[in-house]
Q: What sequence folds into this?
C-alpha cells in the first residue's frame, strides 16, 4: 500500500504568516489528493481536491500544489480562524489513505 | 442541500456487533462512491471501506473480515455492519460521499466492558 507522510506534525505561526504543510506519497498518485481542515468536535471540511482545486466557499488564502509524490497546502496570511488540524488524503486507488495530520496553532 | 446523517453508534461490549446507518438526501446513494472513515479519540483519520457505484467493495486491512459495507437504494441509506468489535474500534465513524465530500456528522462507537 502507498503511505502518506505529512509534515510537520504541528506548527505555530503568527497571524499574517504564510504556512506550508507538505504531504509525500511513497509512490506516485497523480493529482488524486485532497486536503481537509478539522476543528475539534466537528467533521473534516474539504479545502482542496485534485491537488489544487479550491472547494467552493473556501477562502482563496488556501492553496494546494503538487502532483505525483510531493504535495503542499499553503495558507497565505494565517488567520485565527485557521487554527485546526489539517489532513491530506489520497484517492487514486484503495486504500484511500490519510496523512497523519498537522496541528496549526497561533503564536 | 446534500446531507448525510449518520446514526447507530453507542456503547457495546468487546466481541459485540453494531450496525451504523447513514441516511443520504439530495442524491441517490448508488450514484456515488460511498465510504466510511473513523477517528479514534485524539487520533487521526482512518479510511475503512468504500462501495463503488457499480457495487465493488473494498476494505482496509484493519477491518477486513469483521466489517461489511452495504447500501439500500430504496431507503437511500449506507450501512456499516461491525462484528467482533474490539477496544481499538472505539472511534467516531463518518460516512462520506464521493471521493472526498460531503461528510456526515459522525456517530460515536465505544467498545468497552
A:
Amino acid at each position: 500500500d502507498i503511505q502518506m507522510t505529512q509534515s510537520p506534525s504541528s506548527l505555530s505561526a503568527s497571524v499574517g504568516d504564510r504556512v506550508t504543510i507538505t504531504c509525500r506519497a511513497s509512490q506516485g498518485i497523480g493529482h488524486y489528493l485532497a486536503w481537509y481542515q478539522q476543528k475539534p468536535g466537528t467533521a473534516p471540511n474539504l479545502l482542496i481536491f485534485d491537488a489544487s482545486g479550491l472547494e467552493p466557499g473556501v477562502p482563496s488564502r488556501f492553496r494546494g500544489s503538487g502532483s505525483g509524490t510531493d504535495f503542499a497546502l499553503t495558507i497565505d496570511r494565517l488567520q485565527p480562524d485557521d487554527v485546526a488540524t489539517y489532513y491530506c488524503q489520497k484517492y487514486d486507488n484503495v486504500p484511500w489513505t490519510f496523512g497523519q495530520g498537522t496541528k496549526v496553532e497561533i503564536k | 442541500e446534500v446531507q448525510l446523517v449518520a446514526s447507530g453508534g453507542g456503547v457495546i461490549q468487546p466481541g459485540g456487533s453494531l450496525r451504523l446507518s447513514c441516511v443520504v438526501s439530495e442524491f441517490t446513494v448508488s450514484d456515488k462512491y460511498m465510504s466510511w472513515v473513523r477517528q479514534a479519540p485524539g487520533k487521526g483519520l482512518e479510511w475503512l471501506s468504500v462501495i463503488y457505484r457499480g457495487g465493488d467493495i473494498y476494505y482496509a486491512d484493519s477491518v477486513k473480515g469483521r466489517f461489511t459495507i452495504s447500501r439500500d437504494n430504496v431507503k437511500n441509506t449506507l450501512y456499516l455492519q461491525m462484528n467482533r468489535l474490539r477496544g481499538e474500534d472505539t472511534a467516531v465513524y463518518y460516512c462520506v460521499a464521493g471521493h472526498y465530500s460531503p461528510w456526515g456528522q459522525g456517530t460515536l462507537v465505544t467498545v468497552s466492558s
